[in-house]
Design brief:
The chain has a ten-stranded mixed β-sheet with strand order 3-4-5-6-9-10-11-12-13-14, sandwiched between helices. Helices cover 36% and strands 17% of the residues. Helix 1 packs across helix 2 and helix 11 packs parallel to helix 12. The protein is built from 13 helices and 14 strands. The C terminus is likely disordered. The protein folds into two domains: 59 residues, DNA polymerase, domain 1, CATH 1.10.150.530; 318 residues, Aldolase class I (TIM Barrel), CATH 3.20.20. By secondary structure, it is an alpha/beta fold. The protein binds iron/sulfur cluster.
């Protein structure tokens, strides 16, 4: 079986070349061809010897997920629905802004964690994505966006890179696919590949505590946590993983994460060269009408998070039939924000983007699975095409 070279970070690629009797510097050369040039044809990698190119063609491939659809919203948001085989599709979303372009990447086909408000959770879990399928989303976006006129993707003051920031915030729980996600992020950070700083790669988790500690050790990047509730009783309902890792443990892990990035534990020279990740955690909080949006709950949240350097991102809920939830009125979102801000917490309200292309995570992929499932005569319950919330 041939090795897909997009599955390999610098270390694994070096081992691969050692295994075929080649020098370590070949790994750097091939990383640049794959990720900076976007070349998938070994015969075109002109600084490799002819013999090596032929050797590679017998032992390796470069396979990226292929695109099923690519809608573009009127606000410039792009969404790619990528096929990963066996009827599974994943979503990748690009959000252009004046000063940056953010790519939201999926880590699993479906998700097992069943957060109460999430479209992806409603689809159930299908499988973990491979490293190639994760980093392949960035590979794809850079190729597509790089071939378009700059003004089509970013404003006048825009960053010169088509993708300046990556958020692991699409379909799936990234820390439940730890090894593949970390390998993909190492490629994103690698100067011979995408060269992103740790501050520009954000991993968003629902709160798998041991994996947060591992991430801090193995690949520290900016951390976002889906909080969504100010106490365990409510969070147990909204984010069921809370029953296993309650708030006290989760917040302690957040604190350890931030302490490490403040410098105490930075010993790895490579980490220092790439810069520390951010010195705060971003807490995401979806605003659900009458569920978690009262003034009292805002005050509870302030008390809960007082020991963790943090920012808040309040997310208006995208309502959908049968969700059982509704979006909080804007006035209540503003009142909630004011309480947090008055307590000294930087708090933003997320702008809704890409509404006309089902911008919320899981909607398009849900439809693909919905059609497939109906053909197969399975229950439509597991795969409803609904609007969830990760974006
Ligand atoms: S919010 Fe995230 S962790 Fe929760 S079900 Fe959705 S994709 Fe999974």
């Amino acid at each position: 079986m041939k090795t897909n070279l997009l599955d390999l970070d610098a270390r694994a690629l070096t081992e691969f070349f050692a295994g075929i009797g080649e020098k370590p510097y070949r790994a750097r050369q091939v990383l640049r061809w794959l990720h900076q040039v976007g070349q998938t044809d070994f015969s075109q990698m002109t600084d490799l010897s002819k013999a090596l190119r032929e050797k590679l063609s017998t032992r390796a491939v470069v396979e990226v997920p292929h695109c099923v659809s690519a809608p573009q919203a009127t606000d410039g948001t792009r969404k790619w629905l990528l096929s990963v085989g066996a009827g599974n599709a994943i979503e990748t979303v690009f959000i252009p802004e004046q000063t940056r372009g953010t790519l939201c990447i999926s880590s699993q086909a479906g998700c097992a964690l069943e957060c109460a408000f999430c479209a992806t959770g409603r689809q159930g879990f299908n499988r973990n994505l491979s490293t190639a399928e994760i980093v392949g989303q960035l590979w794809w976006a850079v190729r597509v966006l790089g071939s378009e006129p700059r003004n089509a993707r970013l404003g006048e003051e825009g960053n010169t890179r088509p993708v300046s920031n990556v958020v692991m915030m699409g379909m799936g729980e990234p820390l439940a696919n730890f090894a593949n996600v970390v390998r993909a992020m190492r490629i994103m950070l690698d100067d011979h590949a995408y060269g992103l700083s740790r501050r520009r790669v954000t991993l968003s988790t629902s709160g798998i505590v041991p994996a947060i500690d591992r991430l801090r050790e193995e690949c520290p990047v900016a951390l976002a946590v889906s909080l969504h509730a100010p106490n365990d009783a409510l969070r147990d309902e909204l984010v069921p993983i809370n029953r296993k890792y309650p708030l006290r443990e989760l917040l302690a892990a957040c604190r350890r994460y931030v302490d490490a990035s403040l410098g105490d534990e930075i010993s790895d020279a490579k980490w220092q060269r790439k810069g520390a990740p951010r010195d705060f955690v971003t807490f995401e909080y979806i605003m659900l009408d009458g569920v978690n949006d009262s003034a009292q709950q805002a005050r509870e949240l302030v008390a809960l998070t007082r020991d963790v350097p943090c920012k808040f991102n309040l997310i208006p809920f995208n309502a959908f039939p049968d969700s059982g939830f509704a979006r909080s009125p804007e006035s209540r979102v503003r009142a909630f924000q004011e309480i947090l801000v008055n307590a000294g917490l930087v708090t933003t309200v997320r702008k809704t983007r890409g509404d006309d292309i089902s911008g919320a995570c899981g909607q398009l992929a849900g439809r693909v699975r919905d059609r497939r499932t109906r053909r197969a005569g399975e229950s439509a319950m597991r795969v409803r095409s609904v609007a969830g919330e990760r974006l």
